[in-house]
Specification:
488 residues, alpha+beta, single chain
């Protein structure tokens, strides 16, 4: 049985099924936002809903308090509507036109068919909508804030009108992915790009394409401390070693699909002594597979020869420069937090590397819990770029969310969670970019916390969500809404 609409709570899963049916990758959320807006204008009338959209596609749905809750403080429920687009190499899924195909496994989890599921943050959005389109859930006045472009630039949150938060003292962000954990802070991030153009020479030659694939990938913040293989860097290691034995000419490089996803696959085409290079790659592949056997047990490398191919290739010297730059590029955990045990403070992900017709680009995402630490890390990247004669630019920068351990909302939710789960929740900061950073800047007097159900392997084709955890966290949400204090 793969009909998720029959899972409990049905209202949540029915909304999630509708979300999955409408393609909504980042920058392509219009169809989903328009659908929700029309539902508010039609079916939403009976629930007292009204909505407005802004120029960025963000949506605000307002619902009056239920009877007897009119004197309670207003609450914002906040979720983003876009999803990361990742699929396996054998998937033909088109994220711009195809619905997400859901699969129930072991009666415990919901997956997608060889693609990201979009439970990040579709489940949080479905929970908020299930409350909005309901007659029998007790709640104060609700402001449901649905944002766009969270998975890329947080462009939606960045563009929000601060007036949307007027008179709203509390906000529940539904974009966390760990059961019985309460998040009160998050990392900020800087999207840093490096590029350079190199002269190429046209030639007809036998080329070799090297492919690295079969890696787990994952979320570049939440999973970065797991030290999974980065396909871009593993491929570069293979190329650099080969180049040291027998010089090569780079023709192309194509690795990774998103700056916030750990690259699962990468491929490069080169010109050189095919026999020697293939032998060296085979030897080094076995070494790397042994090194990563416990974290990447499906790592594979494939070499494909193409005879008499017309190509434009870099010189040995420029090939050497690029390989040295990528080999020197910092990746993964840079420092662990001194304040929160087991939490990453600063990290970076070499998410995308492209080389085509001499144009080289590396796109990365640096994260840190602290603004000054992030700035220092970006300064370090600038120094590396200068040494490597690379052009560097910071394309986007978003703030972190500094924790407030004395938050009244934290105290309320912490007590409710302790009773709900039968244990004290783990109060944490997350090494990922939650929109609360921007939201706090726009609404400094709005108290906010974040929680959500167990979502595993977000930003990868093995993303899945725990069914029982969704049910539990929806029940938790209803308890919180029922216990919001009166207006001050």
């Amino acid at each position: 049985m793969n009909d998720i609409t029959q899972l409990n709570p049905q209202t949540v899963w029915q909304w999630f099924a509708k979300i999955c049916a409408i393609p909504h990758p980042s920058y392509h959320e219009t169809a989903l936002i328009d659908y929700l807006f029309k539902r508010v204008q039609t079916d939403g009338v009976q629930y007292g809903l009204h909505a407005e959209k802004d120029s960025k596609g963000n949506l605000r749905i307002i619902k009056p308090a239920t009877q007897g809750m009119e004197n309670r403080a207003a609450v914002a429920l906040q979720a983003h509507c876009d999803m990361v687009s990742q699929k396996t190499d054998d998937s033909n899924h088109d994220f711009l036109s195809d619905p997400i195909q859901t699969i129930i496994k072991d009666n415990r989890f919901v997956y997608a068919d060889r693609t990201t599921l979009g439970a990040d943050n579709g489940i949080g959005l479905a929970m908020a909508l299930a409350v909005a389109f309901s007659h029998n859930i007790a709640h104060p006045e609700l402001h449901i804030i649905v944002t766009t472009e969270e998975e890329t630039s947080m462009g939606g949150a960045k563009a929000l009108n601060p007036e949307w938060f007027n008179g709203v003292p509390y906000l529940l962000n539904l974009d966390s992915e760990d059961d019985a954990q309460l998040f009160i802070g998050c990392a900020g991030g800087s999207e840093v790009e490096f590029n350079q153009y190199y002269t190429t020479q046209k030639q007809t030659a036998t080329t070799l394409t090297i492919k690295v694939f079969g890696l787990h990938g994952g979320h570049s913040g939440i999973d970065i401390h797991k030290y999974r293989g980065n396909a871009n860097l593993l491929l570069t290691r293979l190329l650099a070693h080969s180049h040291s034995v027998s010089p090569i000419n780079l023709v192309s490089f194509n690795g990774g699909t998103a700056i916030n996803a750990i690259p699962r696959s990468a491929e490069a085409t080169i010109v050189g002594d095919i026999r020697i290079i293939t032998a060296e790659i085979e030897k080094l592949t076995k070494i790397i597979q042994s090194e990563l056997q416990f974290v990447e047990n499906n790592l594979q490398v494939e070499c494909i020869t193409h005879k008499n191919t017309n190509v434009t290739a870099l010189s040995h010297t420029d090939t050497h420069r690029i390989l040295n730059f990528v080999m020197s590029f910092p990746n993964g955990v840079a420092r662990m937090s001194d304040s929160f045990a087991g939490v990453v403070e600063t990290s970076i992900n070499a998410g995308i590397i492209l080389l085509k017709e001499g144009q080289f680009t590396l796109q990365s995402l640096a994260r840190s819990l602290g603004q000054t630490q992030k700035e220092a890390f970006v300064q370090r990247l600038a120094a590396l770029a200068q040494l490597a004669n690379m052009n560097m630019s910071v394309l986007d920068d978003y703030p972190g969310w500094l924790p407030n351990p004395h938050s009244p909302l934290l105290g309320l939710v912490q007590n409710i969670m302790a009773e709900h789960f039968g244990k004290e929740p783990l109060v944490q900061v997350i090494h990922a970019g939650l929109e609360c950073g921007y939201l706090r800047a726009k609404a400094p007097h709005t108290d906010m916390v974040s929680f959500g159900p167990n979502i595993f392997n977000a930003h990868s084709p093995t993303e899945h969500v725990e069914i029982e955890s969704v049910q539990s966290n929806f029940a938790l949400l209803l308890k919180i809404l029922a216990n919001i204090p009166e207006r001050k």
